[in-house]
Amino acid sequence: MSGRTSVSTVIEDITARGTFNSRGEETLEVDVTTVGGFGRASAPSGASKGKAEVISYPQGEVDRAIEKVADLIAPELIGRNADEQEEIDLILHEIDGTTDFRNLGGNTAFAVSLAAAEAAAVSCGMLLFEYLAGQFASELPRPLGNVVGGGQHAFGKAPDIQEFLVLPVKANSFRKAAKANALVHKKAASFLEKADETFSGGKGDEGAWTPNMKSEEVLDIMLRACDAVSEESGVECRVGLDMAASSLWREKEKCYAYPRDGVRRDSEKQMDFVSRLVEEYGLVYVEDPFHEEDFESFAELTKRVDNCLVCGDDLFVTNVKRLNHGIGLGAANSVIIKINQVGTLTDGWKTTETAQKAGYTPVMSHRSGETTDTHIAHLAIAFRCPIIKTGIVGGARVSKINELIRIEEMLGKRAKMATLP
Ligand code: PGA
Ligand code: ZN
Predict the structure, then answer these.
(1) What pLDDT digit, counting tens, does each position of 341-383 carry?
(2) Residue 303 known to be catalytic
(3) Is the CB of 65 under 6 A from ligand 1?
(4) Ligand 1 geometric centre to CA of 46 (Å)
(5) Which of 15, 218, 287, 390 is 20 to 30 A off residue 33, Cα-Cα?
(6) Sheet strand arrangement including 38-42
C-alpha cells in the first residue's frame, strides 16, 4: 500500500449508517468522500466467532458505532489523505486505545479502513485491487464454496459439522471454477433429495443445504457430487470441511460433541476421526478441526496429513501474534483472513504477509452474516490469496463471485488462476 498522496485523495467527509446484513441483523456502513472520489464499505458479522477476535461494536450496538464515527473518527480523519492507509489505520488504533477495539468497535475500524481505501482507489481512477497491489496483480483466487452445512449456521436437525465445501483444484478460469461450484451445489441437492425424505431445500446462513443427516452420509454425497461434476465439466473438484470445532468442544467434559451423529470424541479420537476423513474422502482442505486453544493438535494433524490444507480460522482470528505462535509450533499450514476479526486493512495485510513468508496459504474469507459488499474479491487478488471462501448462492455470496468474473474479463489475457501449494 504505497502513498500516492495528492489533493484528490483528501478526505472531505465521513458518515456512517446502520444497514442490514444477510441474517437481517443491523450492521455498519461507512461512506468516505474525498475531493476526487468516494468509497463505501460495510461490515460483515460472524455466528461462530473466535474468542480472540476484536469486539465488533462498542457495547454491542451499531448505534454507538455510528456515534463514534461522527464524534471521534471523522474529526481526526477529515483533511487527511485517504491513500495514507497505514497512517489512517494507526489513528484508528490510537483513538480506540485498547488491544481489542472495544472502544470504537472492530467493525467500525474495519468499515472506515476499507471505505478509505476504496475512496483512495476511486480518487486515483483505479479499481481497489489495482490500487492496493499495482498492475502486476493478475492472479484470481480459487473459489472455496459452501455446499452443505449445519452447526451454528443452521437450526434444528442438521449436520454437526458446520461446512462441507467444494474446491475446484484444477480450472483454467475463475468463471469455470465458479460454475463448477454452482453445479456441485445443484448436484448435491438432487442427491440429498433422494437420501433424506424430509429434505425440503432448507439452507443455512451461507446458502448451504441443511439436510437432517449424519456427517459421513453428507461426505458420501459430497464426494459423489464432486466426482460427477469433475467428469461432466472437466474441472477437478475436491471436498473440504470447516469443522468449526470450537462450537463442538465441551470444555467441562473435554470432548467434541456431535449430537446429530450421536457421538462424543475426546481429543485423541477427534484426531483419529479427522485423519481418517482426510484419507477416506481425499479432503483437500480442513478448517478448524480442533478447538481454538489446541495449537498442539493442529500441529500434530498437519504432520500426519499429506496434500491437505489444515486451516486456522478461530485458531488464528487473523491475528499476527496468534499466527506467529502457530508458525512456531507448526500448527496448520493455512490461515483464514477475515479482516474484521482484527480491525483494519493494515492489520489484515500484516497477517497475510506473515503467513506467506512462513509458507502458510492465506484464504480470504467472507463471514456467515454478509452484505453485497464486493471488496473481499479485490482484497483476495491484492493480498495474493490463492483461495477465496465466499459461498456459492445468495446475493451476498454471488456478489463477490460476480465481481471476480468482471475482474477476470477486465484482465483479459493477463488473467491467471492462482496455483495451490
Ligand atoms: P462466522 O464463521 O459465522 O464466524 O462468519 C464462518 C466460519 O467459521 O468460517
Ligand atoms: Zn471457519
Answers:
(1) 999 999 999 999 999 999 999 999 999 999 999 999 999 999 9
(2) no
(3) no
(4) 5
(5) 390
(6) 11-20, 26-34, 38-42
Picking from 375, 369, 316, the residue whose alpha carbon sits closest to that of residue 51 is 316
Q: Collect all residues with Cβ–Cβ distance below 8 Å to 185 and sequence separation of at least 6.
A: 145, 147, 166, 209, 392, 393
46 lines ligand 1 (CB under 6 A): yes
Please report, as a single letter, which amino acid is at residue 53.
E
- Round to whole Å and give the CA distance between 401 and 137: 18
**Residue 66: its H or E element:** helix 62-68
d(CA 226, CA 387): 18
Dig out the grid coordinates for 26 from the structure.
Answer: 443491523
- Ligand 1 site, residue 49, Cβ cutoff 6 A: yes
At 48 the three-state DSSP class reads coil
Residue 338 falls in the annotated catalytic set: yes
Mutational test site, ligand 1, from 285, 338, 365, max ligand atoms within 8 Å of CB? 338
Please name which of 192, 190, 141, 164 lies closest in space to residue 283, comparing C-alpha atoms. Answer: 164
Single-letter amino acid, residue 52:
A
Distance of alpha carbon 185 from alpha carbon 183, whole angstroms:
5
Residue 183, all three cell numbers:
453445479
CA distance 254 to 263: 14
Cross-strand bridge partners of residue 237: 168
Report yes or no: 212 and 205 within 8 Å, Cβ to Cβ. Answer: no
Pocket flag, ligand 1, residue 41 (CB < 6 Å) = no
Q: Which set of grid coordinates corresponds to residue 398? A: 454471488
Rounded CA separation 261/325 (Å): 33
Distance CA 172, CA 153 (A): 32
208-263 pLDDT, tens per residue?
A: 999 999 999 999 999 999 999 999 999 999 999 999 999 999 999 999 999 999 99
Instruction: Report the DSSP pairing between strands 309-312 and 285-287.
Output: parallel
Residues 6+ apart with CB under 8 A from 301: 271, 274, 275, 286, 289, 290, 310
Catalytic residue among 49, 179, 187, 338: 338
Q: Which of 53, 163, 206, 287 is catalytic?
A: 206
Cβ(365)–Cβ(340) below 8 Å: no
Closest CA to 343 of 52, 106, 86: 106
